[in-house]
Design goal:
single chain, Rossmann fold, eight-stranded mixed β-sheet, binds adenosine-5'-diphosphate, binds magnesium ion, magnesium, nucleotide-binding
Length: about 160
């Protein structure tokens, strides 16, 4: 399942649909280079979780928490290098807890991701274009991905 958005606003809209479809304990792993739109998509997801206020990149603090329909734990591993460093943040205590967890730079923990998670890859395909690839791992996330994909309104790709 692949979408292509033509603006940041469109990416946020896709995110909102994702946020609306999420439930307690869900985990989203975002892959993609700097500027690919991971934070932008996360802002949309936050809107879909009824979170008011600004969601910004948590790069400096690693984990930020927001309150909405469900709690959102927004994690960014950009600044961390080793798996050991990452494990020392205690990030895994959030995963599958009460809220929704979003991880930016999931590349850095690819090998230790849990059995089921919603894998989303973002690719820069033009100045204002981003490809968004849904690669859900596990049945629950397949259902969510399909639902969002079919209602996204963003450009479909094969
Ligand atoms: N289609 C698009 N989707 C998302 N962001 C876009 C798009 N087109 C341009 N942009 C810009 O790309 C940047 C993405 O930044 P950000 O979401 O912080 O990326 P990341 O968190 O992956 O580093 C923003 O400045 C945004 O305005
Ligand atoms: Mg970011």
């Amino acid at each position: 399942m692949q979408l292509e958005t033509k603006s940041a606003a469109e990416t946020r809209r896709v995110g909102r649909r994702i946020g609306e479809a999420l439930g307690q304990g869900d985990l989203i792993a975002l892959f993609g280079e700097l500027g690919a739109g991971k934070t932008c998509l996360t802002q949309g997801i936050a809107t879909g979780l009824d979170i008011k206020g600004n969601v910004s990149s948590p790069s400096f603090v690693i984990i930020k928490e927001y309150r909405g329909r469900l709690p959102l734990y927004h994690i960014d591993f950009f600044r961390l290098q080793t798996v050991k460093e990452i494990e020392s943040t205690g990030y895994d205590e959030y995963i599958c807890g009460e809220g929704v967890t979003i991880i930016e730079w999931a590349e850095k923990i690819e090998d230790i991701l849990p059995e089921k998670y919603f894998r989303i890859e973002l690719i820069i395909s033009g100045k204002n274009k981003r490809r968004i690839l849904f690669k859900p791992v596990g049945e629950d996330y397949e259902r969510i991905a399909r639902e969002v994909y079919e209602n996204s309104g963003a450009g479909y790709l094969k």
